[in-house]
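Input record (one chain):
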Amino acid sequence: MKKTLAMLFTTVIGLAILNLAKYALLNLPQSALATVRCEEVYGGGEVCIRTGELRLDKWVWDPDTAQWVNDLGIHDYKFGPGEEITFKVRVKNEGDETLGKIDVRDYLPSYVNHLSGDLSYEIHNLDPDESVEREIRVEVVPAEEIPDDDTSICVVNTAEAWGEGEKDKDTAQVCIEKKVLGVKALPPTGPANWYMIIPFSLLAGAVGLYLRKSNN
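The corresponding structure, as predicted from the sequence alone:
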């Protein structure tokens, strides 16, 4: 009898805990039910970001493949001094309600100069499933401003968005190197048409030898 009562008591307690957990889950605010986005990073491993109603994505344009990519690693296209790099940022409302005001900030990495595109701006009244995209163009600094001790330098561009109790950020990596200029061939020394001189030299030698024999 006691064993039966103990089992019944355990079952009742278990059901009560389960129902309480369901109630708490269903009544969590929308932001608490956020998903997690994970991306691989250069050097190994990954970075996981908790996302809610507000989502921000960042890409960089790959000149080799002519498409937008998340990152350009050490084995991908490398930018040289004076080359332009284009980044793209997309801010999206993944919730069910309009987001009244969103602040966006872009943080440029080292070894680049800003050319065009807003680094700080506001987005107003972003409706559900609506997104806004912006592009930023930068230029790699001159060669003398890039350290000589590294063959390649990988830097990260970060963008962040926040508002209405939501926040998200993303990054895009690029690698920079000093381009090795091709070695120009030195101009040949001596006459350019040396191959034409040889026959005339042989002919002159033969004529001289003939005249010498004739005089003898």
